[in-house]
Amino acid sequence: TKLRYGAYAPPELVKELDDVGMMRARARAVLRTAHDSAVLTHQNALAESGVPLWGVPLEETHLTRADGRAGRREAGVVHHRATLGKRWWSVRDGVPAAHPARAAVEVMTTYGAEAGLVAACGVLHRELATLEELHEVARSARRWPGSLGTRLVLARADGRVTNVAEARTWHLFFEQRIPRPEPQVEVFDDDGNLLGIVDFLWARLGVFLEFDGRIKYEKHRRPGESLADYLMREKRREEQICLNKQWICIRITWADLQRPEVLARRICKVLD
């Protein structure tokens, strides 16, 4: 299987890889012929740390030479020129990659606020960096192209946001001026029994929001549980919370995020 020009891998090693996995495989092929000081950066570095990605091209490989010199330009490889102090990169599983805090800020400045917020929340939730480290990188990146929005993104970043769907919904709340709820709230009945964890909660208004998507199905399905069984269990959980707390549930999907203004009006109508 061709990974890139001059680089191939046995089909059995790559046949089950998803798009991010193929990106990681291509990055390894790029490193084999790159300068010894080359370090993976941007989304390539985040992928090495297991940070979920959204809004970034997966067919590119981003490299920075740690010695501060510029590298050659070639198809499918984006070379960056920067001085990387030893603190801001390391070798993980034999792969040199930028620190997650730096990689997240690189994504912010290159691909914009929503992609950057997904990256920042992913880094914080996995405790790969602190908010202080993200701010430290952002301060050093003040002269980077696209750096004007980093302060705004970091003001919104929250480690309680657990995945891409929630991060994009969190972004929607800010962009559409929706009153911000509490993310990932444990809900208990009057006897102290846990009824469930809701994605977002407006406790004072008695409204919670749940995201329907494949991420949740894969994360919360029990071993051997069918999709139909999971959906029925999820429906019972929602009903139990609504009946016990007298709350209203809003359910949204990936398709809803494609029409943010329409979704915002729907949410605000319930909140009002």
Write up what this structure looks like.
By secondary structure, the protein is of the alpha+beta class. 45% of the residues lie in helices and 19% in strands. The strands form four sheets. Strands 8-9-10-11 form a four-stranded mixed beta sheet. It has a three-stranded mixed beta sheet with strand order 3-4-5. Strands 1-2 form a two-stranded antiparallel sheet. The longest helix has 19 residues. The protein is globular, with a radius of gyration of 21 Å. The mean pLDDT is 91.
Short description:
With 272 residues, the chain is α+β, with helices and mostly antiparallel strands. Helix content is 45%, strand content 19%.
What is the fold's blueprint, element by element?
Layout lengths: L1 E3 L2 E2 L2 H4 L4 H15 L4 E3 L1 H7 L12 E5 L11 E5 L7 E4 L2 E4 L1 H12 L1 H13 L5 H10 L9 H7 L7 H12 L6 E7 L5 E9 L4 E5 L2 H7 L6 H19 L2 E5 L1 H4 L2 H12 L1
Parallel strand pairs: 4-5, 10-11
Antiparallel strand pairs: 1-2, 3-4, 6-7, 8-9, 9-10
What sequence of helices (H) and strands (E) makes up the elements?
Answer: EEHHEHEEEEHHHHHEEEHHEHH
Order the strands across the largest sheet as they lie in space: 8-9-10-11
Helix count from the secondary structure assignment? 12
Radius of gyration: 21 Å
- Give the overall shape, derived from the CA principal axes: globular
Q: What fraction strand?
A: 15-25%
First CA to last CA: what distance?
A: 55 Å
